[in-house]
Amino acid sequence: MQNFTFSNPTKIVFGEGQIKEIANLIPANARILVTYGGGSIKKNGVYEQVVKALEGKTWFEFSGIEPNPHYETLMQAVALVKKEKIDFLLPVGGGSVIDGTKLIAAAVNFDGEPWDILAKHAPFTSALPIGCILTLPATGTESNGNSVITKAATQEKLSFGSPLVYPQFAILDPTTTYSLPPRQIANGAVDAFVHIMEQYLTYPVGAKVQDRFAEGLLMTLIEEGPRSLAEPTNYAVRANVMWAATMALNGLIGVGVPQDWATHMIGHELTAMHGLDHAQTLAVVLPALMQHQRAHKREKLLQYGRRVWNLNQSDEEALIDAAIAATRGFFEQMGTPTSLSGYGVGRESIPKLVDMLVKHDLLALGEHGAITPEASREILELAA
Amino acid sequence: MQNFTFSNPTKIVFGEGQIKEIANLIPANARILVTYGGGSIKKNGVYEQVVKALEGKTWFEFSGIEPNPHYETLMQAVALVKKEKIDFLLPVGGGSVIDGTKLIAAAVNFDGEPWDILAKHAPFTSALPIGCILTLPATGTESNGNSVITKAATQEKLSFGSPLVYPQFAILDPTTTYSLPPRQIANGAVDAFVHIMEQYLTYPVGAKVQDRFAEGLLMTLIEEGPRSLAEPTNYAVRANVMWAATMALNGLIGVGVPQDWATHMIGHELTAMHGLDHAQTLAVVLPALMQHQRAHKREKLLQYGRRVWNLNQSDEEALIDAAIAATRGFFEQMGTPTSLSGYGVGRESIPKLVDMLVKHDLLALGEHGAITPEASREILELAA
To answer: In chain B, where do the E strands start and end?
Structure first.
């Protein structure tokens, strides 16, 4: 096990009916900005619950934060925050709304062009406090310090991270996910699954607790993901998926172990160039990357196949083949195609995608830094 | 899954050589009290590392905190804290030193007799900040708000808990455990194992993540516990046991699930009356309790046997028998006898132990409140 530091200050408030707790969790005299997306929270009753819980408090709202949240949109929110002297941010929604609100929090007191926080990793020394209400289990942003933002003007998709933007609290009410479209549920489960794999499927360092936790989360998603599509109002199933997605990227399973993240980096280019959903790109890249990196990841692939999928082929290569096929099968079962062709993306796009990786200086990806642009090209060919 | 709130503010700093980090973690102008036990930290190099890291800071020391820390001893430390205007507490040791220091932290500004914090659950509104260096993986106290204290005068052993006494940070360096006597290593692994079982072996509520995490920790202790005795300086093994013991009782695996804790309650009487080590009492009580409660715990006993011990008997009663036998076998393998007779305690003690449970108002233990004094008597008979 490698040395590590772990700390996660976010208070989780989990379960049906918990939205009302924001009344106690937000400071009494706060000037609150409720941020949200396209308005689905007005159709599923969440907005009403928020309004009721905020009764007697001073609050404003900012809607229209889009998927892959746009820098340009968020800067409008920053202007509103300054004008109304907002001092507490309450994002209500999925990863995009929460990620976007983290940038709002960091940008408000930033001296200069806030895009530099993303483009130049410009440091910031304060951020507005955030508490969030999660309505789409997927990214883990509700209890971490990460954020991914897109500049619409240039289609650049960049990330930043800081302990200053951890939400102080996160409300997770599984019933808020009942009305989500199947594609978003599928994307969320696939996204969480691949978050776990990025921290697990590398090489062994004898970190048994982290391995067992990762395997437990993977098994939970494999069992509950398809059920969450088939039984949209099964509380226990939605609760398990929601909690698994949070635990997948709150830092815990990644402590003291090597991490990969090449699938994410290659996938980002696919979203930027072809508009695939984030999770769709992961479902395309990961199985191909597992195949391409099977020598480097050999021991963990065997462990993954045996423990997560209960495979017991005596031939190790056959076992690895079966583990990759099972992974692909899980994504397909969630309704998420696992090849470029499944999204109408042809082989002719591959050189352009590799060019973008080079342009973004992503020349040595993965836990060994061994995924060169040439290797990325081969992975994309395998994913064609 | 039941509704829950989870938050754990302790920063974990894990790994070899991390003790020096206290220089950065403790406020620069703090007046620090280093608390410790019988002086083993002066033999294994830990004290030297602490002294070096505190160079240039203002610090004092208080030694002699005993196992099952005495209220009387801790009140001497409180007097020192007041006299020297201490404003930061740095316990260095195992569960007793850290538990004891939590009481010091709470007692300093307490208006009245601090024993009331334990005996009457008297509220306190502030506590001195604590950062700890853990040298004995066992109780989980390094990242929770719990503390167990004994009043020597009356041999009362009582507990208190508060978010105010969570350590701000916990340094976990597995190499500090290399010099521990085998009995303490065994006790620590057994203690952590039973902490997990108290939160896991109840009845199913469909909480798949919590179940998988608990099972993963149990499997880790089963694999690494015996190795930690056989290979005292195997870093990876000691690291896994240390991290598993912390995760066993930092609140995470217990969220949203029913909990038992009857084994602990019955075990406390055994320590108080016969002086058995805490973990020894757990090793005696748990297998007997599993046997006695096998109807109430049936579904979880089957799941435990299948997932944790890989049992596959077609007869379910035989499978449960084997799961209980395997649990007993693990404790024995750790050198910890699992019957009262193994510690020279005869059946004639059982009525007196039950009388103490009644005296302490422990009339309805376990996740169903179904363990009456009569049931406790039967459990102790099974443990004879």
So the answer is: 4-14, 31-35, 58-62, 88-93, 131-134, 146-151, 156-161, 169-172
Taking only the tens place, the pLDDT of each residue in A124-181 is 999 999 999 999 999 999 999 999 999 999 888 889 999 999 999 999 999 999 999 9
- The nearest CA of chain A is from the CA of B322 a distance in Å of 22
Query: Is B314 in contact with B328 (CB distance < 8 Å)?
Result: no
Q: Find, among B358, A105, B359, the residue nearest to B376 by Cα.
A: B358
Residue A66 per-residue DSSP state: P
Is A219 within 8 Å of chain B by CB?
yes
Q: Do B5 and A16 touch (CB under 8 A)?
A: no
Based on its alpha-carbon atoms, the radius of gyration of chain B, rounded to whole angstroms, reads: 21
CB contact under 8 A, A236 and B1: yes
Calpha distance A348→A273 (Å, rounded): 13
Put simply, the answer to whether A14 touches B256 (Cβ < 8 Å) is yes
Residue from B143, B127, B136 nearest B187 by CA:
B136
DSSP per residue, A215-283: HHHHHHHHHHHHHHHH-TT-HHHHHHHHHHHHHHTSSGGGTTS----HHHHHHHHHHHHH---HHHHHH
* Whether B7 and A10 lie within 8 Å, measured CB to CB: yes
Domains of chain B: 11-176 (3.40.50.1970), 182-382 (1.20.1090.10)
Residues of B in contact with A1 (CB under 8 A): 14-15, 236, 239-240, 243
Q: Are A284 and A337 in contact (CB under 8 A)?
A: yes
C-alpha pair distances (Å), B317 with each of A295, A345, B379: 44, 56, 19
The letter for the amino acid at A51 is: V
Which residues on neighbouring strands pair with residue A161, listed in sequence order? A146
Mean pLDDT of each 10-residue bin along chain B, 384 residues long: 97 98 97 95 95 98 95 98 98 97 97 95 96 96 96 89 97 97 97 98 98 98 98 98 98 98 95 93 98 98 98 98 98 98 98 95 96 98 98
Nearest to B223 among A208, A216, A223 (CB): A208
SS3 B245: helix
Structure tokens at A373: 């642009």
Sequence length of chain B is: 384
- B157/B264 Cα distance (integer angstroms): 12
The answer to whether the CB of B53 falls within 8 A of the CB of B22 is yes
Single-letter code of the amino acid located at B262: A
CB contact under 8 A, A17 and B3: yes
